[in-house]
Amino acid sequence: MESVNVLKGYGKLGSPEAQTPHHHRAAKRPLIVALTISSVVLLTISLGFLVGALIRESNAEESESRSLRSSSAQSIRAVCSVTQHQDSCFASISSLNSSVKPDPEAIFELSLRVCVNEVSNASLFVRNLVKSSNDARSKGALGDCAGLLEDAAGRLADSVAAMAGPGEDKAALTELKISNIQTWVTAAMTDQETCLDGLQEMGSTVLDEIRDRLSRSREFMSNSLAICAQMNAILDRFEMGMH
Question: Which contacts (CB < 8 Å, 24+ apart) does range 106-110 have?
Answer without folding.
Answer: 106/171, 107/75, 107/76, 107/79, 107/227, 108/79, 108/163, 108/173, 108/224, 108/227, 108/228, 108/231, 109/160, 109/163, 109/164, 109/171
